[in-house]
Predict the structure.
Amino acid sequence: MRLISPNGKKVIIKGTKNSWAVSRFYLDKFLVDKAVEKGAKLIKKRVIDIERKDNRWIIKTDKKIYKSDIIIGADGANSLVRRKLIGTIPEENLGLCYGCFARSNEKEFTTIKFLEKKQGYAWCFPREDHLSIGVGMELNNSKNIKEIFDDFIFSYYPHVKIISKWGAVIPLVKNSEFFKISCAGENWILVGDAAGHVDPITGEGITYALWSAKLASQSLLKKDLKEFDVMWRNEYGYNLVEGSKIRDLFFNKNVLELSAKMALKSETYGKILYDLINSTQDYKTFTKRIIYDTPKIIGEMIF
């Protein structure tokens, strides 16, 4: 992975494990196909409204109405289910991503470029036959996101051919109090982005989407949907809370510049950064790992 500091310092870092990138197009289709294979019924209609009536959920589409005893909101940061149940995610806890899919004749590095005067980063993720290139930052501070994206392309990827552009709103929680909000009731659950369960620093959401879905299914099997709140807080809640608390420190420009310098001289520190960005290093054991590896880091930087 190539890291670029806000001032443009470049460093190549390697992680403790190999990683790979898969298009959401293929991942989502795989998950849907598996669900249908296991007995789920896929109804290809857009839900336009839901309401609770006579102890059942009334789910409205543009052509038909469905009824259900239980509803699970897995419908993203702008979740209709969340809005109807507990209200929308506040703007202060949202982020905006803008990017493109592109093709290149060159072999590209996975690249993370931290932004100046913004809490966020630009990226390039090589995939099998194309690139995912984009920029992500806080929604409240994203007025010039397209300009930042264009500048990133101009500076580092002028040779690529852009296939299509896209934009998306994601949860990016700054206020740790947000995670005290319940994500389950007697007959409902919110998972993934709809629950706001996204890494507050990296913006990584797939891990928590799949993880929360697994826990939701376990609470369904127990016939106790409220247990979902206990389960997610026990298994990954700490990571979300701590990530939101250290977000300002992580994106401090001086910290980022220092981190780049340290990673340039210490392979061990570079691995820690790689694993943190790659979501294989949680925040619960992050400090312990830093302390444990400090002698090795110092030794590598000196010698």
Observations:
- The chain has nine helices and twelve strands.
- The first helix runs from residue 24 to 37.
